[in-house]
Structure formats: structure tokens, C-alpha cells
Amino acid sequence: MTNEEIESTIKRILAEDFEIDTSGVTSGTDLFSELDLDSIDAVDLMVRLQQEVGKKVDPAQFKKIRTFGDTVSAVSELVNG
Q1: Minimal CA–CA distance to 48: which of 7, 9, 8, 2?
Q2: Domains along the chain with CATH numbers
Q3: CA distance 75 to 53
Q4: Are 10 and 49 in contact (CB under 8 A)?
Q5: What is the DSSP string of 42-57?
Q6: Could you report the per-residue pLDDT of 9-42, keeping only the tens digit for each?
Q7: Does this model's pTM top 0.85?
Q8: For residues 77 and 7, what is the distance between their CA atoms, to the nearest angstrom?
Q9: More confident position, 57 or 21
């Protein structure tokens, strides 16, 4: 998957599962303060992403994710090694 495909997938999940308008989401968008996700939402997001890519996110990596860009990077590293 390219970063563009990953970004599109994450935005689709944010829109469908969390009813978030992703039109203004950039790599620096904070998942918690700007998109109002809480820790349970973050876990739900990671579970959905794992289902999408068929691989498990490392919990240590997951704890470092704060922004949309962090999420894209984590998924890219997971998918593309």
C-alpha cells in the first residue's frame, strides 16, 4: 500500500466508524485534541486498521501514535516493513 492509499483508508474508517469530517485532516492533526478520539476510540481504530491490512500493530508502537501522520507511518511500517 502507498501512503496515499493508507491515508485514504484511515480517513474512510474515521468517517464511517467515528463520523468525523476528514476534509481538514492533515498529517499534523492530533487524534485526541482535534478529532476528539478517546483511548477506547484509538483502540477501535487500531483494530479496524489491523483488519484492513491483516497484520497486528505492536502495542509499543501503538502507544506512540498521537497524530494522523503517526497513524499513517505506523500502518505503512506494518504493511511495507
Answers
A1: 9
A2: 3-80 (1.10.1200.10)
A3: 8
A4: yes
A5: HHHHHHHHHHHHTSPP
A6: 999 999 999 999 999 999 999 999 999 999 899 8
A7: yes
A8: 13
A9: 21
